[in-house]
Amino acid sequence: MTRFDTLAVHAGDDPDPQTGALEPPIVLSSAYAFEDAEDAATRFREGVGHVYSRWRNPTVEALERKLAALEGAEAAVALASGMAAVHAALVSCVSAGDHVIASRSLYAESVRLFEELLRRFGVEVTYVDATRPEAIAEARRPSTKVVYLETPSNPTLAITDLAAARAAAGDATVIVDSTFATPYHQRPLELGADLVVHSATKFLCGHGDAVGGVVLGATEPVEAARRVGVRTAGAALSPVTAMLIGRGARTLGLRMRRASATALELAVRLDAHPAVERVLYPGLSSHPGHAVAARQMRSGFGALVAFEVEGGLAAGARCYDGLEVITRAVSLGDVRSLITHAASTTHASLSPARRAEAGIGEGLLRLSVGIEDVEDLWADLDHALATR
Ligand SMILES: *Cc1c(COP(=O)(O)O)cnc(C)c1O
Q1: CATH number, residue 95
Q2: Residue 295 catalytic?
Q3: Residue 206 CA, ligand 1 centroid: distance in Å
Q4: Range of the domain at 364
Q5: pLDDT digits (tens, 9 = 90+) for 144-174
Q6: Which one of 217, 249, 281 terminates a domain?
Q7: Dihedral sign from CA coordinates of 321, 322, 324, 330
Q8: Same domain, 185 and 270
Q9: Using an 8 Å Cβ cutoff, are 105 and 133 in contact?
């Protein structure tokens, strides 16, 4: 049992040894009974068995085993959100005086984590254009502990060459936010990354009904992330949510095959539409990261497509307002297609000049393609573009 779709269905959830229940029981117990003082002492000292559900919970561990199998990781720790995962991965690696190199193209909340949290605790951050791996080598200092990357990135779908970034990072820990690609399309650990983080809220869950995150990698750094992020900072995932994410993850391959194929088809059609200024999709040969994406992603290029509507902010907003099948909402990775207009929502706090610097045009729409029929999605986009 080594192939993705089989692992997605079976990994992590063996039948319950007591009852044979196929579905892993949702263990809602906060604490676990000890046999005696020696048993209690051993569990505390060596971290074996269960003590308290903030530290370890059997339902959450079943999800961790499944996600580790899909990512090809030795270990995984599931947390209360994607941001809790980003936080745990970073904070377990850095101390005051350390330096981090981060990609300039990141999920906005990750930037706030660097700016509003890590800087206050004496961690310096240098942002680089990670589509040029040599920029990582140029920014390196003796105190560089982490290189933090996201590929494809939000919302412009910039691609970082992970093998080249690994080589440029020297002995720094390379952390990759692989949320947009999912382990179905990309496995950064095989390309030399030390830790992978995902917002499990997105494709791993896939149904828009849970918030969670995961850190994956070798046992030692993952257990370090668990100690700081879960045991100490307390961002434990609820067992009920773990069950929902595990259930969603069983169909990850099915959903990604469908959504990625639809995304490519829509990207091609948008690219040929006279009302569209440009399309950013790593599967198009016109995308600057296409050659690298074709090498390091597999079985497709993911379900996110960004496109710039001709006519700037007002035209972008009118097209956005004209959609009827595609839902106007943040988040992504849902079975429903979701769309965001960056300039009026996620990136509204930036000036148009700062947005332009980040490659975010005023009419830029980011579409997370769901599993609806491609012709209904296209008819919706075509109609909305006509009303622009
Ligand atoms: C959503 C997202 C996050 C944050 O995850 P939450 O589950 O919302 O906390 C981090 N990185 C990327 C790329 C995301 O899309």
Answers
A1: 3.40.640.10
A2: no
A3: 13
A4: 252-385
A5: 999 999 999 988 999 999 999 999 999 999 9
A6: 249
A7: negative
A8: no
A9: no
